[in-house]
Amino acid sequence: MSKMKVRSGVLTGNELQEVFAYCKETRCALPAVNVIGSSTINAAMYAAKQANSPIIIQFSNGGAVFNAGKYLDNTNQRAAVAGAVAGAHHIRMLSKLYGVPVILHTDHCARKLLPWVDGMLEAGEEYFKSTGEPLYSSHMLDLSEEDLDANIKTCAEYLERMAKINMTLEIELGVTGGEEDGVDNSHIDSSRLYTQPEEVLQAYDALNPLGKFTVAAAFGNTHGVYKPGNVVLRPEILKHSQAMIRQERGRSEEKPLDLVFHGGSGSEQAKITEAIEYGVVKMNIDTDTQWAFTRPIREYMDEHHDYLMAQIGNPEGEDKPNKKYIDPRAWMVAGEKGFAERLVQAFRDLNAFDQFDLG
């Protein structure tokens, strides 16, 4: 099979759906990396260029606030909206210079954070009026802690609105364990970490007539990295969910659903490969890339310790300047390189490395 040719820039609408379909056919998935500002955004695009692949770049609510500035007043989520919108424009401008396709996404959004999505959709609708495409490719609603009917009802309401501007919705069924961005599910009942195929079918029936969506179905996923054996992944849940949709609704495709793997950091390679086999097209990665950014900065600080104690004076002489060592560009780029290297590994783990033709 020839490689899929994909243009650079932000992909939305049918282009996004074509990439997901190709991923299922090729048995690969794309890493979805959480970013917090220009350094991580640029490193992500640099990694995608090396991997010769599209990449999913996403803001969490906290990441969007951080991009705007932690000092801003976030009343009614205005800082989070501003940070997400500013980040989208940054990515739209530079992705074409990097020569990479980007799927632009936002991560977990609980009900209390819905004003954040509302604000981004307002910006997206205005952008659509002037350009014919949405600002973001997709948004995620995570109402998985709520009653299933309430979860699906709200998701349907948002999908109706998003479909009008060619956006895709990501939903979560079942809870991702651990702690992420201030949401702590570490003490959740373990039964809620495993979605039932019947729940996926119910969501499919409600959403499929309305627009395009992806499903983050829980199969034991947990945010963070833990000792082997502490997290029990059961990807067969994804297989059974696909089979139920196919059989109950007469779908001819082997994998009618586009599935999402949350909590990908630290996962076993065999489980990643199995999940992709069952239709996962997107795997979230955050903890691993956080460490990959921080570790080389720590090493830089250790290595150049004696040059970082003052502006003047180091082992080479009391009057020697330390400007080139204390310049944040010296150590931030080390973090960016580490971040990009870990993402390139993720592309390989997900079988996405060099699967596309970026022109």
H-E order: EEHEHEHHEHEHEEEHEHEHEHEEHHE
The largest sheet is: 9 strands, parallel
Task: Give me the count of strands.
Answer: 15
Low-confidence stretches: 182-191, 225-230
Describe what this molecule looks like in 3D.
By secondary structure, the protein is an alpha/beta fold. It is 47% helix and 16% strand. Strands 2, 3, 4, 5, 6, 7, 10, 11 and 12 form a nine-stranded parallel β-sheet that branches. Strand 11 (259-261), helix 9 and strand 12 form a beta-alpha-beta unit. Helix 3 crosses helix 4 (78-98), helix 6 runs parallel beside helix 7 and helix 10 (287-303) runs antiparallel to helix 12. The longest helix has 22 residues, at 328-349. The protein is globular, with a radius of gyration of 21 Å. The two termini are 17 Å apart.
Name the descriptors:
single chain, 359 residues, alpha/beta, 16% strand
Give the helices and strands, then pairings:
Blueprint: E1 4-5, E2 9-10, H1 13-26, E3 30-34, H2 38-51, E4 55-59, H3 61-68, H4 78-98, E5 101-106, H5 114-131, E6 138-141, H6 148-163, E7 168-173, E8 179-180, E9 183-184, H7 197-207, E10 213-217, H8 236-248, E11 259-261, H9 269-277, E12 280-285, H10 287-303, E13 312-314, E14 317-321, H11 323-326, H12 328-349, E15 356-357
Helix pairs in contact: 2-4, 2-12, 3-4, 4-5, 6-7, 7-8, 10-12
In short:
The chain contains twelve helices and 15 strands.
